[in-house]
Design a protein that fits this description.
This protein is mainly β. The protein is built from three helices and 13 strands. The protein has a single domain, classed as Jelly Rolls (Sandwich), CATH 2.60.120. A hairpin with a 3-residue loop joins strand 7 and strand 8. The N and C termini lie far apart (66 Å).
C-alpha cells in the first residue's frame, strides 16, 4: 500500500496553527447580510432635482451618481462639469481612469502622461509638456490612470462635460487622488497636495 507524499514540512505545519483567535469571517457574513438588507432600500432612480451641486477646487459640478448619494450604483461616480466661457478646470490626477463626454462647448484637454517604475516603491514621473486633445459636442475623452489633466473651454458660452470615474480602485486601497491646482475662481476650495 502506497502513501501520498507530504509536501508540507513540519515547520510549515506548525506555522499553520495559532493561539490567536478572531471572528472576522462571522463579522463579514453579518456585514454582508446587513448590507443586502440596506441595499434594497437604495434608490435606482435619482431625479434631476435631487442631484446635488458642489463648488469644488476643480470648478462647479453637479453630482449625477456619487458614493455619498447612497444609490444602488456601487462602482462608478458620475458628475456634470460646468466650465465657464473661456475658462478651465483645475489640474487633477487620480489612479482610476476617467471617461468624459462633451454635452456642449468646445475646447481642449491637456494631458500630462505618467510613467512609473515599481522597484522597492512606486516611482512616478510626469511629462512636463502636455498632449493636447481638441473636443466638442458629442466627443468622448479618455484620461489614462494617474495622468495629470486639465480641461479648457474655448467657447464664448459655458461648456458642460459629463465625467465618469470608477470607485473600484478606491475600494481596494488605491485612493490616490490629487488636485494639483485649482480652477480660477475656486481657489478657496483648494487644499494643495502634500507631495
Amino acid at each position: 500500500m502506497s502513501s501520498k507524499p507530504s509536501f508540507v514540512s513540519d515547520v510549515e505545519r506548525q506555522r499553520a496553527r495559532s493561539d490567536v483567535s478572531a471572528d472576522f469571517y462571522a463579522q463579514a457574513l453579518e456585514a454582508s447580510k446587513a448590507f443586502r438588507k440596506e441595499y434594497r432600500q437604495r434608490p435606482s432612480l435619482v431625479k434631476w432635482h435631487d442631484m446635488p451641486m458642489e463648488r469644488t477646487a476643480d470648478g462647479l459640478i453637479k453630482h449625477i451618481v456619487n458614493e455619498g448619494m447612497n444609490t444602488a450604483e456601487c462602482c462608478i461616480d458620475i458628475y456634470m462639469q460646468f466650465i465657464p466661457p473661456n475658462g478651465a478646470t483645475g489640474t487633477t490626477r487620480h489612479l482610476s481612469e476617467e471617461v468624459a463626454f462633451v454635452i456642449e462647448g468646445s475646447g481642449h484637454d491637456l494631458h500630462y502622461d505618467v510613467s512609473f517604475k515599481c522597484e522597492e516603491e512606486f516611482i512616478w514621473a510626469w511629462e512636463t509638456t502636455p498632449k493636447k486633445y481638441e473636443w466638442g459636442p458629442g466627443d468622448y475623452i479618455y484620461i489614462p490612470p494617474y495622468c495629470a489633466h486639465k480641461r479648457v473651454n474655448e467657447s464664448d458660452s459655458e461648456a458642460r462635460v459629463v465625467v465618469i470615474n470608477s470607485r473600484i480602485l478606491k475600494a481596494i486601497g488605491f485612493d490616490w487622488f490629487d488636485q494639483l491646482e485649482p480652477a480660477e475662481g475656486f481657489e478657496e476650495y483648494w487644499v494643495p497636495p502634500e507631495d
